[in-house]
Amino acid sequence: MPSRLQRQPVAAAPAGIFKVGDEYLFIAVLQNQSGHFCGALGRPDMIDDPRFIDHTARVRNREALHAAIDTYLAKFSSA
Known about the structure:
By secondary structure, the chain is an alpha+beta fold. It has helices at about 35-40, 55-60, 60-75; strands spanning about 15-20, 25-30.
């Protein structure tokens, strides 16, 4: 991963660089896209999860949110 890029921008969540196989993917989700993003991850349960219910909560619980994204992306290869 390029050293100039941070994985986690300070004021956004989810946003950052995620590993997919041997490649990297930048993901940034706007506040009004969060529900759709959770659905795309196959995790509609996250929409009402208090840890991810709004932007402030998602930033506060960024590690858990990014862990869920990492788990989802682990299913894919870069090929």
